[in-house]
Amino acid sequence: MRQKITIKTIAKELGVSTSTVSKALKDSHEISADTKQKIQAYANLYNYKPNNLALQLRNQKTKLIGVILPKIVHHFFSTIIKGIEEVANERGYHIMVCFSNESFKKEYENLRVLSNGSVDGLIVSIANETMENKDFSQFKDLVSEEIPLVMIDRVVSDILCDKVVVDDVGGGYKATDYLLRTGCKRIALVTTPNHVSVSALRRQGYEKALIEHYIKSDTSIIVEIDEEENFNDQIAPIFNKDIDAILAVNEIYAAKCIKYAKAKGLEVPYDISVIGFTDGLISEYSSPSITSVAQHGFLMGKQAVDMLINHIENDSEDYKPKRNVISSDLIIRESTKTSS
C-alpha cells in the first residue's frame, strides 16, 4: 500500500508551491497545461485524495477556535485561556477548550475531534507525554492539511506553524542571577525531565547565570521531578548538600520546597531562598509569599489567538509562520533576600 500523500508532499517532490499544486488539482486556468498534467499524473499515481473534512474546515467557517492545554488546574494556563477568550470575542469568535492531562492519547483524541471541521483553527500547548515520546506526527498532519495551528509555551521547532513562547532561558537566567546577587552560592534546581522543552530552556538560563558568576554547575543539586513519585522523597537529598537557595520551575514546586524547608527547621529566606516560575495565587498568598518569574500568560493567549485568526482569515495558501517571544519579569517577594 502506498503511503498517504498530501498537497505539501506533492509540492516538495515536484519542486513547486503548495498553491500551485492546489490550483492544478482544481484544474485552474492560472496553471500551465504541462504543470497541471505533471501534478495531476503524480497525484493519480499515488492515489491522492483530498481531506474533505479539512477542506470543510478551511472553506466553511465555524467562528470557533479549539484550544488544547496540558492541565486544567494551573494558573498559567488559566490566564492563557482568559487572554484567548478576550481577543477571540473581540474578533467575533468563540473558543472550545480541551485538556490533554499530559497524555499523548488524550491529546491525539482531542486533535482528531477538533480537526474534523468543528473549529476554524487550533491553539495547542503540547502534552508532557507527547514531548517524551517525540511523536509529533499528528501536528505534522495538521500542517500538511493546511489547518491553522498555533503552538504556545511548549512547542516543537520543526513544526511549521505559528508559535508564541516565553523567554524561558531569560527567565531562568534572571532568577538565578538575582539569587547570586543576593549572596546565594549553592542554588539547587528543582525541575521537570529535560524532554519538557520549557524546563530544559529554564535550565539553560540557570546554567548560563552560574557560568557568568564563575560557579560550576553541580548535577547533585539538580532534581528532575517524576510526578508519579513522592515529591519530598525526591528533593530530600539536595537538602543534605548545604544549599542556600532553590530555583523551582513552577510555583507548585516552589511552595512544596518552602513547606519542606520549614519542616526541616529552616527559615525562608534567611536560611534558604526560593524562587518559582508562574506568578499565580499560590505565589502571592503563600507564607512567605514567593518571588516568581512572571510569564505573562494573558499576553501569550492574546497574541496566540490574534495570530491564529489572522491565519484563518488570510487567503494566501503560502502563509509564512511567525514566532513571538514574550519577555519574562522577576516579581520580588518575601521568599528571597534583598539584593545588595
Task: Please tell me about this protein's structure.
Helix content is 43%, strand content 16%. The chain is of the alpha/beta class and 340 residues long. Helix 12 links the parallel strand 8 and strand 9. It has three domains: 44 residues, no CATH class; 142 residues, Response regulator (Rossmann fold), CATH 3.40.50; 128 residues, Rossmann fold (3-Layer(aba) Sandwich), CATH 3.40.50.2300. Strands 2-1-3-4-5-11 form a six-stranded parallel β-sheet, with helices on both faces. The chain has 14 helices and twelve strands.
Low-confidence stretches: none
CATH level 3 topology of the largest domain: Rossmann fold
Shape: elongated
Total DSSP E strands: 12
Helix content class: 40-55%
Order of helices and strands: HHHHEHEHEHHEEHEHEHEHEHEHEE
Distance from N terminus to C terminus (CA atoms, Å) equals 69 Å
Which CATH architecture of the largest domain? 3-Layer(aba) Sandwich
Q: Can you tell me the number of structural domains?
A: 3
Question: Regarding CATH, which class of the largest domain?
Answer: Alpha Beta
In what order do the strands lie side by side in the largest sheet? 2-1-3-4-5-11
What would you call the quaternary organization? single chain
What value does the Rg take, in angstroms? 24 Å
What is the CATH homologous superfamily assignment of the largest domain?
A: Response regulator
